[in-house]
Amino acid sequence: MLDKARETQLLAILGLSGFASSFAARSTDPMVNAIAADFSAPVATVALLSSCYALPYGLGQPVLGPLGDAISKGLVLRVCLVVFALALGAGVFAGSLEQLFVSRVVAGLAAGGVIPLALAMVGDAFAYDRRQVAISRFLAAALIGQLVGVTASGAMADWVGWRGAMAVTASAALIALVATLLGLPAHLNARAPGRFSFAEAMERYRLVFANPRAKICYGAVFLEGVAIYGVLPFVPELLQARGGGGATQAGLSIAGIGLGGILFSATVSLLLRRFPVHVLMRAGGVIGGLGLAGVAYAATWPALTACFGAVGFGFFMLHNSLQNRATELAPTARGSAIALHAFFFFIGQALAPPLFGVAFHTVGAPVALAVCAIVLAATGVATGSLLNRHDMRDGTA
């Protein structure tokens, strides 16, 4: 464990990396209509840019997590940031939609080694009794990145075009890379004496799944991804249909999720003192579900922002608890456990836009969002109950 000054330094540097990763993750959502118009492509096709980031992000986890455990979390993090910044920069100069898709795929794959490994490093550095607060502080930086990313991307798409917005995204990644190269504590950059072994990676995964809570946690984050992230690429289309504005307003609306998450991060210490974690999980699912239900009927972008704020507050109330649980599923294979957490979460995110798109254009937004709301609420209630039952059985409640 580090002293407090070094803990603060580590959180600041890792937080900057999380900021850059989250900045890029949802940056294309408010620009879908603008990119579609530029390349004369269907909106439903361009909406898959978010899936092309999320899917490789998730698929890379089974390799990147064990690689960090075996070699060095800090070393793998730095390499991923290099590739991440280069891929985002390439997207600025994409001459076709296909090239833009490729740049997002590579960026998503590289980003898969940023937040999960940073979370694992937080887990290594902080004692369990202070870890959830530390994780919430790290997530606050990531949430601010998401908030600024969708807001700035939407505004800049209207102001200087989507390429200018992507240039800002690439610049954020470059700044995070420089900070990590110069400021990450030396012992975290050192190469571990081991080497990557497929057999050892499988053994780490077996160790993680030996904990009966693993299936509950990973199933829950998968359903979170499916329930929440399907609607986001279609927010510009929703607003346009309701006469609510363009890319700027879409970005501001989606930013509500980040605002809700920041509110949760600011109140997490108070909430943890007053309520058991399983209660927060149940409440988070219900609050997020109610927010999604409201999205179906919000007629203006401020109303939509408020609904997404409820989604963000409830989602992070549930998700933060699951992330903290993931750090303890297998303490000797923490990087692998966090990688699996991200794998299931981002696979859910990748599947969400095409699934929501089919439902949206078949049965309409109210029905599609009602299903998402029910899934999220049920996930929170069921997960909180199941994990509490395991804790009571083991005497850890």
UniProtKB/TrEMBL annotation:
GO terms for molecular function: transmembrane transporter activity. GO terms for cellular component: plasma membrane. It is found in: Cell membrane. The keyword Membrane applies. Keywords: Cell membrane, Membrane, Transmembrane, Transmembrane helix. It holds the Pfam family MFS_1. Its main location: membrane. It comes from Alsobacter metallidurans. Residues 10-391 form the Major facilitator superfamily (MFS) profile domain. The chain crosses the membrane at residues 75-95, 101-122, 134-156, 162-184, 216-235, 247-272, 279-297, 303-322, 334-352, 358-383. It is a multi-pass membrane protein. This is MFS transporter. InterPro entries: MFS, MFS_dom, MFS_Efflux_Transporters, MFS_trans_sf.
